[in-house]
Amino acid sequence: MIIIGENIHVIAKDVSVAIRERNATVIQGLTKEQTQSGANYIDLNVGPMKKDTEETMKWLVNCVQEATDLPLSIDTMNPVAMEAGLKFCRKRALINSASGKTDSKAQMLPLAKKYNADVVVSVMTDKGMPPEVESKIESIMETVAHANELGIPNEDIWVDPIILPVSTAGEGQNIAVGNLEFIRILQDVLPGVKSTVGLSNISNGVPAHLRPILNRTYLVMLGRNGLYSAIADPLDEELMAFMKGELSQITDLIYRTMDGEEIDLSPLPQKEVAYVKTARVLMAQSLYSDAWLEI
Amino acid sequence: MMEYKAPKEAYKGMVREVTIGKGDKTMKIGGETILPLHFFDEGSLPNPPKFALEVLDMEPTDKTQHLMEPFADVISDPIKWAKKCEGFGVDAICLMLVSTDPAEKDAPADGAAQLVKRMVGEIKKPLIVYGSGDEKKDAEVLPKVAQVCAGENLLIGPVQKENFEVVGKAILDNGHVAIAQSPLDINLLKELNVKLCKFLPPERVVIDPLSSALGYGIEYSFSLIERVKQIGVITKDSMTMMPIIANLGDECWKTKQAKENRTQGLLWEGMTALSLYLAGANILVLRHPETLKSIKETIGR
C-alpha cells in the first residue's frame, strides 16, 4: 500500500502559519518525520491558495524537497496553484485531485499530460457525488474515458471513490460498505487504473480518541479489496504496522468479519475485540453509534 | 398454472414489552415481533399502540381558544384536568411539568414531585411524566419525582445525554421506566441507549426520538421511527429494540396552522399522529380529545 503522508495540511494551524511566515523548520520537520515513518509520498494540502500563489507554491515545494527524496502530491482544487507547484517538482508528482466536473476536466486533467504527472480522479461530477456504487462506476468510467482521450493512460490515474464519515446518521455506514465494493470491482471495470482514498474522512465527526481505530480498520478492509494507496497519517505506528503485515492475527479477524463470520469475542484480548467491533460497524452489520466499542 | 403464494417474512428481533404503572392501572407497550402493521408476516403485535392525553401542571400560556375549550373548566387544576381526560377514553395520562422550566416559573422540584404523587393517587390510568426538557433542571426535578413516587412504575423523561446518569439512576433505584430522548439522530439514539443500559435494564427504557409536526420536519421523525423498528426487528440490534413514544401534541399545537382555526388544528394533530402511528410509534401523546376520538375512529379501534 502506497501511503501518501497527510500531515502538511493547511487546516492545521501550525502548518498554515508556517507557510505564511515561510517557516521552513516546521514544514521540513513534518516532512522528515513522515519520510522516516515510511510514507511513500508527501501530500501538500494547500487549500484554494488564492493569494501569492506562485511565490508560495515555489517556496513550499522547494522547501519540502530539500528535506525528502519522496515524490510529492500537490493537493488543491485550484488549477493555478496546482500548476505553480508542478513546475518545481523534481520527481514525478501526483495531482490531487481532478474530477468529472466540467471545470476540472478542462483545467486540471490536462496538467497531468503537460507535466507528465499521475493524477487522482474522483467520482465527483457537476451533479455532485453519485449516490450509489453503480452511479459512481458510471461517472468514473466517463471521466477516465475523457482522460484517455487527452492522452492520459489508465496507469497514471488514481481513482478516488470519496470516503464520507461512517458516523453520518442514516447513510454513513451504507456508503462505507459501498466504497469497499467500489474498490473491489474497480479493476474489472477499468483495468490498470490505480486507486486512492482520503482515509481519515471515514472518522470525521467521531470523538478524536476513537478515530485511529476506525481509520486503521477501514484501511485494512480497503487494502484487502485491492486499494492501491491512501492519503493517511504515517505517524500512526499501528496503521503502518498493519501495512507492513505485522498484525496478521488482527488482520485475519477483520477479514473474517468482512466475510460475515460471527466471531466469538469471549476468548479474545481487548484489542482484538475492539477491531472486530469496528469492522462490524464498517460493514454495517451493527448500527453505528459513538459508543460502538462499549457494547 | 402456478399458484401465487404471498411471501411471508419471519424476523429475528422484536420490540421489548414494557409495562407501565402498577396494580390495576397498568399498560403494556411494545412486544411486537413484526414490523409496524405487517400483520401478513410471521409474528404478532400483542399490544396495539396506546394513546395518552397531556395535562400541564400550570395554566397554559398559549390561550388558543379552540385548544383550551374542552378543558376550560379545569385548566387551572391539573388533577381535575387529568380526570377529565380519563373521561375521553385515554390509555394513559401524560403530565407535563412545564412550570419547573427555568424559562417559565422555575417552580421547585419538591412541589412538582408532590403534584405527581397526588395525581398518581387520584387517577385510574398509568401516568407518564415529562420534565421541562431543561437538562439541568430535570436533573433535580425528575429524581425527586422518582423518589417521591417510588414503586409506582411511572414512565419518566426526558432522559438526555447530559443527565442520563443522575436521572437514570433515580429511575432505576425507585422502580420506574425511562424515556430516553435524543435529537432526531439514530446514532445518537443508540449511543444514549448503550450508556443508559449499562446500569438500567433495557426492559425499562422507552425511546423518544423527538416528534416533529406535519410541515415542520415530520419526515425526519417518520423515517427515524421506521428505521429504529427495522434495525430492532430485522437485525435484532438490542439497543434499538425498545418501544417508541411519540410526544407530538405540543409540537402540533405550536404551529401557526393549528392555532389558526379549530378544524385545521385538529387535522394537523390528527395527521401527525396518524403518520407516526403508521411509522411504528407504540404510544402517542396528544393534546386535544377530538384528535384522540378521530384517530381512534380512523384506525378502527
Summarize the model shown.
The complex is a heterodimer of chains A (295) and B (301). Helix content of chain A is 46%, strand content 14%.
What does this structure look like?
The complex is a heterodimer of chains A (295) and B (301). Chain A is built from twelve helices and eight strands. Chain A is an alpha/beta fold and 295 residues long. Chain A has a single domain (2-233), classed as Dihydropteroate synthase-like (TIM Barrel). In chain A, helix 4 links the parallel strand 3 and strand 4. The longest helix of chain A is centred in the middle third of the chain and has 18 residues, at 172-189. Chain A is globular. Chain B is an alpha/beta fold and 301 residues long. Chain B is built from eleven helices and ten strands. Chain A binds chain B through residues 167, 169-170, 286-291, 294-295, and chain B through 185-191, 194-195, 198, 223, 227, 231, 235, 237-240.
Output the keywords:
heterodimer, A: about 300 residues, TIM Barrel, globular, B: about 300 residues, alpha/beta, eight-stranded parallel sheet, two-stranded antiparallel sheet, 11 helices
Element layout with pairings:
The complex is a heterodimer of chains A (295) and B (301).
Chain A: E1 2-9, H1 13-20, H2 24-36, E2 41-45, H3 53-67, E3 72-75, H4 79-86, E4 94-100, H5 102-107, H6 109-114, E5 118-125, H7 133-149, E6 157-160, H8 172-189, E7 194-195, H9 211-224, E8 229-232, H10 237-243, H11 248-258, H12 270-282
Parallel strand pairs in A: 1-2, 1-8, 2-3, 3-4, 4-5, 5-6, 6-7
Helix pairs in contact in A: 1-2, 2-3, 3-4, 7-8, 9-10, 9-11, 9-12, 11-12
Chain B: E1 18-22, E2 25-29, E3 50-56, H1 65-68, H2 78-86, E4 92-96, H3 109-122, E5 127-130, H4 135-148, E6 155-159, H5 164-173, E7 177-181, H6 186-196, E8 205-208, H7 218-233, E9 245-247, H8 249-253, H9 256-260, H10 262-279, E10 283-286, H11 289-299
Parallel strand pairs in B: 3-4, 3-10, 4-5, 5-6, 6-7, 7-8, 9-10
Antiparallel strand pairs in B: 1-2
